[in-house]
């Protein structure tokens, strides 16, 4: 039996560098939660804070886990304790990210990576932007990744073991099923581990596949219990809700390939339209960091040129090779799924961990650890400078207590917003009412003819209509690439008068009142900056 078939017994002196790397990255994420939480992050936080809509089809257990965590730390329900729900949920994801790195370290060893190289690989994976961005926000990806990595670790133990093999497979299947319940995306990880057992090759492989697959029965059972109505059809409709309603869709074509390439880059390094304004504000500091990062990346990358030619033949041991090939397969399944989802970067965040598992003990075995670490430091410095630190310190959108106060103060007005979900879900978070602002309308994905007809009817009826899409600087992003200038297409030809403004890092954002083209909108008595009212808790500005 190969040495790795025995239980993992790393000496403390060999284990602590991996723990130190995971601890450092976890501490950075804990210290720098984003100030610019996504609309989804606000929604999940609202559900967990108030105990509402806990069972979501696409990520069945995520809100419930958050609710339990908030109850544990005393940050649920009304203010003042409940106002800290979002930071506590961000903290939970940072801890999950750190635990994922520890699990990955054990898995890399099972995949044939040298013990001395594992800390460098953990630094490289943990410094990828795909890992860092979701470890500092309340998004749904770090927790299922942790469960999936633990499932892979148990699966790898089964591959090496003779005695207790099926016990490890049952545990792996259970953890993989739980990962699917936290996010449906992990079904591809579950499927990859099943295929890695090759259940079509003989009786033993069939039994192994059954042992692994049996715990997956928990998934339909959980959906049956969570579905709002009984019956097989109702459960299926609930489980596939996002696909049946258009919340998730298949999008293939040239644009999907372009966005896939961009998202692959962004999974490793932060690349965004806000980088130019950041460089213009701090040219020497950020320019120096960028040059240093590029230099380290070149030094680290050069070490990988001849790794295949110098590969250690011991890395070809069958169990380790099985682990590597299976996780390459899992990575391929996830990548194909991301491509059909228009290159969604969120669906690629697990790729660095899978790539490391597939390559660190195989094709890149001879990559010197110091070179791997250099590339990891390059990614970390770049992603801190252009990603985590600015997102923690700066306000990018201005969506905060001031705008919330205006919406609640004018319940009869319509608000046409570029990013409606952030405001809508902030109101849910602070008031506990899912429909606190039913007249918030997004501009994205609107049919121009239908929308302009609807808007003309609202204005003709004398409704008050505001928008934040006219004027101000909006950094170039994916939405602008995909949809162009929405305001020009949907709001051109209408009269508009700026009423208020809010400050952001990019400059002022304006709130304008719309009217028919021939109508002059009367000027307000005053033009105050938006201020928070007592109706809305101040909290953070985003």
UniProtKB/TrEMBL annotation:
It comes from the Bacteria. The chain crosses the membrane at residues 88-109, 116-135, 141-161, 168-191, 217-240, 252-272, 284-305, 326-343, 349-367, 374-394. The keyword Cell membrane does not apply. Keywords: Membrane, Transmembrane, Transmembrane helix. The keyword 4Fe-4S does not apply. This is Glycosyltransferase RgtA/B/C/D-like domain-containing protein. It comes from Hymenobacter ginsengisoli.
């Amino acid at each position: 039996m190969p040495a790795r078939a025995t239980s993992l017994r790393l000496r403390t002196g060999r284990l602590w560098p991996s723990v130190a790397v995971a601890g450092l990255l976890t501490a950075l994420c804990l210290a720098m939660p984003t100030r610019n939480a996504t609309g989804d992050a606000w929604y999940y936080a609202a559900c967990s804070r108030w105990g509402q809509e806990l069972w979501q089809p696409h990520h069945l257990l995520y809100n419930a886990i958050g609710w339990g965590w908030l109850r544990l730390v005393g940050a649920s329900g009304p203010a003042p304790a409940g106002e800290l729900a979002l930071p506590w949920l961000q903290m939970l994801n940072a801890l999950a990210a750190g635990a994922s790195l520890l699990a990955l370290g054990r898995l890399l060893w099972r995949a044939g990576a040298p013990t001395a190289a594992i800390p460098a690989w953990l630094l490289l994976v943990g410094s990828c932007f795909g890992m860092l961005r979701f470890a500092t926000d309340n998004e749904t990806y770090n927790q299922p990744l942790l469960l999936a990595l633990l499932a892979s670790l148990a699966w790898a133990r089964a591959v090496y073991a003779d005695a207790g093999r099926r016990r490890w497979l049952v545990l792996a299947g259970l953890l993989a099923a739980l990962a699917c319940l936290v996010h449906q995306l992990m079904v591809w990880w579950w499927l990859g581990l099943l295929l890695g057992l090759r259940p079509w090759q003989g009786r033993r492989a069939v039994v192994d596949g059954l042992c692994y697959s049996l715990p997956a029965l928990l998934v339909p059972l959980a959906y049956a219990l969570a579905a709002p109505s009984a019956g097989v059809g109702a459960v299926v409709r609930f489980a596939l809700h996002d696909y049946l309603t258009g919340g998730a869709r298949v999008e293939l074509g040239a644009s999907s390939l372009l966005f896939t390439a961009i998202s692959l880059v962004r999974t490793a390094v932060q690349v965004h339209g806000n980088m130019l304004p950041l460089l213009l504000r701090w040219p020497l500091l950020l320019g120096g960091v960028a040059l240093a990062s590029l230099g380290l990346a070149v030094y680290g990358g050069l070490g990988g040129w001849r790794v295949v030619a110098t590969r250690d033949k011991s890395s070809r041991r069958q169990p380790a090779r099985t682990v590597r090939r299976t996780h390459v397969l899992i990575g391929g399944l996830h990548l194909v799924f991301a491509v059909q989802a228009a290159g969604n970067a969120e669906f690629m965040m697990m790729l660095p961990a899978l790539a490391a598992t597939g390559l660190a003990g195989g094709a890149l075995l001879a990559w010197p650890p110091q070179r791997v670490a250099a590339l990891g430091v390059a990614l970390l410095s770049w992603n801190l400078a252009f990603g985590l630190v600015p997102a923690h310190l700066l306000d990018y959108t201005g969506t905060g207590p001031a705008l919330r106060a205006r919406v609640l103060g004018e319940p009869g007005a319509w608000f046409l917003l570029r990013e409606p979900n952030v405001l809508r879900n902030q109101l849910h978070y602070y008031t506990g009412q899912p429909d606190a602002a039913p007249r918030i309308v997004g501009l994205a994905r609107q049919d121009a003819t239908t929308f302009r007809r609807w808007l003309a009817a609202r204005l003709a009826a004398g409704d008050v209509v505001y928008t934040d899409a006219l004027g101000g600087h909006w950094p170039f992003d994916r939405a602008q690439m995909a949809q162009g200038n929405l305001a020009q297409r949907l709001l051109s030809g209408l009269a508009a008068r700026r009423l208020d403004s809010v400050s952001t890092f990019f400059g002022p954002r304006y709130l304008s009142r719309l009217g028919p083209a021939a109508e002059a909108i009367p000027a307000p008595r005053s033009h105050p900056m938006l201020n928070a009212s007592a109706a809305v808790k101040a909290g953070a500005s985003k």
